Amino acid sequence: MKGAFGLLILLTFSVVSLNAQSKHEKAVAAAVEKLNKAIIDPEKNLLESIASDGLSYGHSGGKVQNKAEFVDDLINGSFNFSSITPVEQTISVSGKNAIVRHIFVAKATNAGVPTDLRIGNVMVWRKEGGQWKLLARQAFRLQ
């Protein structure tokens, strides 16, 4: 009986511990989802609130943008996203920093021409003023 009770206590603490760790991961996942929605329906104030002032946003073709260029490109550029699905997403939180990796699957148009994207993506998020903000993103072609 004591062994079963001890196991129950251990499992209870394990579940509580996992929930405590996943709280931050859930908050980062929500920030990623907010970013994806803002990319699909770009709005300047929302995009600026998600991006850190020091943003470095790298595209799979090698182009790198700062915060202002990233926001302007989404609002005025030729790419228009209709859907974004992060596949195989992992989130690792360490203090005020988080690393997100996923396969970025999207449907879009480029200058009116339909295009499907499937690229690798790594993002660095940093907690600033109580909010998770995108600090760096680098997309890459998958093999």
TrEMBL record:
Protein name: DUF4440 domain-containing protein
Gene3D superfamilies, sorted: 3.10.450.50
Domain DUF4440, residue spans: 28-134
Keywords: Signal
Signal peptide span: 1-22
Native source species: Daejeonella rubra
SUPFAM superfamilies in UniProt: NTF2-like (SSF54427)
